[in-house]
Here is the input.
Amino acid sequence: MAAVAREIDSLAGAQVQQVHQPEEETVVLTLRLRGRNRRLLLSAHARHGRAHLLADRPPSRAARDERPECPTDEGISPARRSITAPPPFTMLLRKHLKGSFLAGARQIGFDRVLHLTFRFGETETRLVLEVMGKHSNLMLVNAGGTLLDAIKRVSARESRVRPVHPGIPYTPPPTGGKRDPAEATAEMIAAFVREDPEAVLADLLRDEFPLGPTALAAVLARCHVDAETPAGGVAPGVVASALRAVADPTTYVPALLCDARGVPAGAAFLPETEPPPGGERQPAESASEALEDYYTYRIAHEAVEARRRAFLRAVADTSRYAERRIREAEEGIEAARKAPDLEREATLLLSNLGRIARGAEQVTVVDFYDPEQKEVTLTLDPTLPAREQVEKRFKRARKLVDAVPHLERQWEEEQERVSALQAIRPLLEAARSREELDALAPELRALGVLRETPAPATRERASAASGVQHRPIGGYEVLLGRNATENDHLTRHIAEPEDLWLHARGVTSAHVVIRTGKHPERVPPEVIREAAKLCALHSASKHSALVPVDYTLRKYVVKRRGSAPGTVQYTHEKTLHVEPGL
Here is the structure.
């Protein structure tokens, strides 16, 4: 963050020309300085949170060679996407930042917190980026320190410690009492050692300063000690000097770290940071270039991995379905062996109709099929006339016998399908790119793993025009509406009556639809759960640990006359409690 803050700060005086929100948790500012436009990406994504300048150039060779095409929005380069309708946070940023001038950028206390200050006349506004995993956020703060809004609002119910919503004072994240390494002094280090003379240097530094594993390793390397060295065994001045050097972005040497296959493994800024075994350190012109190359690859790679996992889950689901049909076929063939016994009973009953009393539960007759003519007791249904019971037994016997050819074909077909699925699994696991996965798609469709559920052409065109997102989950097409208009169009005009429809319970939520091809009973529970996670992620409860999500058939979802777009009522629902995410 220190290196990027320094690069952004060098653009002080640049005017904000445009504000875009290319994806849900990412904002791109277009800054103009001395006749040149520069784009600044700020992301509060839980896994890809970052800040860096975007270069108008192709990605580096390492990122480009390994970067596959991606099946979802997540894998497309953030600088080259845009959301159809600007979200409210983007509109607010445009109102307060467009036309203003960047006054400066600074990292706060060597933490992953970046403050960007903008001025327009006498008005000053701050844009605060906090990169903290799932708690990452991007906030707009006025000169008085009041939060104007955030890209992720956090209610007091969701976090009593640090709510985030308009109108409250901005409070920085807790530091845990850790110091800024840029302010380290020999006296400070000596005082720490006196407090705990037996402490190991690495533990002391980790406890007192916000150092990650890479920065900590660099400090130890500059002190020429290992991770087990006692704190008292190193001069305090040496330790303080190493800390200040590690916190000084002017000493950084940005690079892209690649593994032995040439695949990007990370971005590095400290010269002590080594690549993975057998890998190499490729120099970068700037910290932003190293970060852009790394995340270009990482986001695309994760999208391919997500597609691979979806295919493998679908293969596993299809395998279980095929194995179940094999067992059903075997059970049916085994049951058909009882057909002669049913015909025998029916014939005996038919020969003794006059001896069967109305309402009798059993009857004992002579078994003329037995050479010894022994008596046999047959169970009866007291609610049916005797003749109907005879016909029922004959009919059941015929049905069992007639089903055998079909069951034998089913057994053979499903055995072949299981064998083919076992053969394709290692190919999916070995695939390295989107192209390699897509090459297996026709075979997966032929095996019933990927189900094609085409809707009428008019509906497909309407879906594309509406901006409804398409997500593959477990071989099923899942549709997502991201605003009231898309939700209304998805639910009323795209979804079929037998499709599964999902909505977070009791809160504003995206409408999510699972295309079932008129067979909702075949949708695996895993697919419904993953779709519910997606629905929860696009709901007002997305920051909660568990979100209740209702699902029902689309035919049970009704829009009342005159109600607002996206407002519906539904019945016959079931509820899952899921963690938001996908």
Notes: Residues 337-450 form one domain. The chain has four domains: 2-177, 181-246, 337-450, 457-578.
